[in-house]
Recover the amino acids of this structure.
């Protein structure tokens, strides 16, 4: 699991993920990702285009981060999921707390709104 | 609990008291002294047996008279022998038809098998492990405990229903010793039957403990003030009862449905779960799902219910995501659409056979255990 965290304009944090968000994948990034965005309540966008699988532990990580961020006036927005990941997110029906956008531009616009 | 292995000796030296600490026999040293050689048999990635290697040779082969019996078409009746010579494990192929291989080379005479090395015979691997007896005993004890826990979880699952106007068959296979899938079904009153399937996030002991607590609430109908015939009410109550932050960050998905015999209607609601699928002769396959988030994620969430007609001869399939989130032998991630192709409708002649579906899924998956817990329920209606 690879992760790249970059700062965009207006305090938005962009996270790029590549690999499988299964149990080892989540173990590899969870502490670093949480540490990078949660303490400061960042507006966070996550590029899922390189993620080929998401399991329940991946969902659990995003829910926990999204809820922490919303308490601190931040937000978490996912974008560009592959078909399999998009179906898992749609089934979990978490759009109210973790919105999913089709591309980077719409994710950044939603993060700044 | 072991006795403390610290001995304290106070030595009076004039006005000072020096406390000298002597570690006597530490656990680590005891473990090192006690190391023994074991031969571990692997079938795919799973260790299936462990044998102590001594100076008395162990014979390995397909014949039931061998010390280690391996049922594998590529293994000869008498294939190999293994013994301890001094401190070394020595393996010798006894003229097998298909050979024994170490590091890709066929063994041609007695060969030392160093610790953590393997030999391959047929589709099986034999690994030399150096471990202490105590360590092996602890592992065996843990395995036994897990096995007991697995029996307990399975004892909570209802038996298949083979007769009557509504029959249920199921197949359940956790990916580890314990899993996070659970299900329940049975009559609510003379006119109503309930069926539900729960899938807790993750798998293993933690997920199994949570699924058991959810299952017991449903089995005991311990949802005060809730009409169990109303799926949305049930999910609202489960969501209030099992909030993630109060349950170690665990959540679950659920499919819950109630069949009304007199109306031939099924009322259902889902939380973060994919649809159940209703197959009826002469009708298109019908996905049964309402949109609602996974249980425990959003406090105060209100769920909604849907309804469908159950035509004569229908079969309803409920399953966990482990049934279709499978990796193919080529490494491709399979999904729901691939799985639906394997489900037989009433016309297929195999409907209602849950184990048949498991075998079909295994046939499309890479070797070894599936990635996640597998549960399928097939509910057949007259």
């Amino acid at each position: 699991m690879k992760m790249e965290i970059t700062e965009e304009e207006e305090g938005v944090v962009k996270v790029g993920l590549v690999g499988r968000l299964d149990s080892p994948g989540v173990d590899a990034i969870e502490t670093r990702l949480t540490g990078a965005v949660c303490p400061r309540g960042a507006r966070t966008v996550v590029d899922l285009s390189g993620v080929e699988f998401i399991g329940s532990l991946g969902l659990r990580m995003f829910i926990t981060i999204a809820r922490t961020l919303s308490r601190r006036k931040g937000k978490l927005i996912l974008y560009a999921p592959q078909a399999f990941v998009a179906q898992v997110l749609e089934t979990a029906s978490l759009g109210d707390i973790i919105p999913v956008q089709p591309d980077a531009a719409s994710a950044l616009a939603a993060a700044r709104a | 609990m072991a006795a403390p292995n610290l001995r304290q000796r106070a030595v009076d030296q004039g006005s000072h008291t020096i406390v000298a600490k002597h570690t006597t026999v530490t656990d680590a040293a005891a473990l090192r002294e006690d190391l023994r050689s074991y031969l571990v048999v692997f079938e795919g990635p799973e260790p299936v047996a462990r044998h102590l290697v001594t100076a008395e040779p162990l014979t390995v082969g397909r014949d039931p008279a061998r010390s280690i019996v391996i049922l594998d078409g590529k293994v000869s009746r008498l294939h190999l022998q293994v013994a301890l010579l001094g401190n070394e494990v020595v393996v010798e192929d006894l003229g097998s038809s298909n050979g024994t291989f170490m590091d890709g080379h066929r063994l041609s005479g007695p060969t030392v098998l160093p610790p953590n090395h393997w030999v391959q015979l047929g589709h099986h691997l034999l690994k030399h492990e150096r471990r202490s007896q105590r360590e092996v005993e602890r592992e065996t004890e843990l395995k036994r405990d897990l096995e007991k826990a697995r029996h307990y979880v399975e004892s909570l699952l209802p038996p298949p229903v083979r007769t009557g106007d509504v029959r249920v068959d199921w197949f359940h296979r956790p990916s580890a010793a314990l899993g996070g899938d659970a299900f329940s079904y049975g009559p609510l009153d003379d006119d109503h039957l309930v069926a539900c399937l729960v899938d807790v996030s993750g798998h293993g002991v933690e997920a199994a403990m949570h699924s058991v607590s959810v299952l017991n609430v449903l089995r005991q109908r311990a949802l005060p003030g809730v009409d169990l015939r109303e799926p949305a009410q049930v999910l609202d109550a489960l969501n209030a009862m099992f909030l993630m932050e109060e349950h170690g960050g665990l959540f679950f998905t659920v499919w819950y449905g109630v069949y009304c015999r007199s109306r031939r209607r099924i009322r259902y609601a889902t939380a973060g779960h994919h649809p159940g699928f209703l197959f009826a002769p002469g009708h298109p396959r019908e996905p049964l799902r309402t949109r609602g988030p996974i249980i425990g994620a959003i406090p105060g969430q209100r769920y909604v219910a849907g309804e469908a007609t159950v035509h004569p001869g229908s079969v309803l399939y409920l399953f966990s995501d482990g049934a279709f989130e499978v990796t193919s032998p080529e490494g491709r991630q399979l999904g729901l659409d691939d799985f639906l192709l394997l489900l037989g409708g009433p016309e297929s002649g195999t409907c209602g056979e849950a184990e048949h579906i498991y075998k079909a899924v295994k046939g499309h998956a890479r070797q070894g255990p599936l990635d996640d817990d597998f549960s399928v329920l097939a509910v057949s209606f007259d």
